[in-house]
Amino acid sequence: MNAQEDFSTVSVIDQDSAVREGLSALLGTMGVTVTSFKDAQSYLDFAASQVTPDSCIIVEAELGGVGILEFLKRLRAKPIMPPVLVMVSRLNTTIADLVLSAGASDLVNKPLVSDDLLQHLHQALKKVR
């Protein structure tokens, strides 16, 4: 499996710069172009003109500012909603149900494992193709 063949860009949204940098480096080794954002609003501003059907988003569930449910709601209102993988530290069925029903493609447990992440990316793409 090669993430580069599936996605033109993966956007990473996390308040923690170490997480953004680590995911960017990991995905970069897979040949993926990565854009990173410190918060949801920064991504939404970018997405107004830059999102394509072969984009994907990896976002922290515990966002400051625009919360994850509001973020997903705003994405659904756009003409193109790329697959969204939501990173969670603790999997809770209530949160999982809310996030998935709000439009997320899948949840990914932290800490991330590269093979698992790649599998989640491929599964997310299958859902939109």
Write up what this structure looks like.
- This protein is of the alpha/beta class and 129 residues long.
- The protein has one domain (3-128): Response regulator (Rossmann fold, 3-Layer(aba) Sandwich), CATH 3.40.50.
- 47% of the residues lie in helices and 19% in strands.
- It has helices at residues 3-6, 17-29, 40-50, 68-76, 93-101, 114-128, and strands at residues 9-13, 33-37, 55-60, 84-88, 106-109.
- It has a five-stranded parallel sheet, with helices on both faces.
- Helix 4 links the parallel strand 3 and strand 4 (84-88).
- The chain is globular.
- The mean pLDDT is 85.
Supply the CATH class.
Alpha Beta
Write down the overall geometry.
globular
Major sheet size, sense and barrel closure: 5 strands, parallel
For CATH, the homologous superfamily is named as Response regulator
Number of helices: 6
Order of helices and strands: HEHEHEHEHEH
Task: Describe the structure in brief.
The protein is of the alpha/beta class and 129 residues long.
Topology:
Layout: H1 3-6, E1 9-13, H2 17-29, E2 33-37, H3 40-50, E3 55-60, H4 68-76, E4 84-88, H5 93-101, E5 106-109, H6 114-128
Parallel strand pairs: 1-2, 1-3, 3-4, 4-5
List keywords for this structure.
129 residues, alpha/beta, Rossmann fold, globular
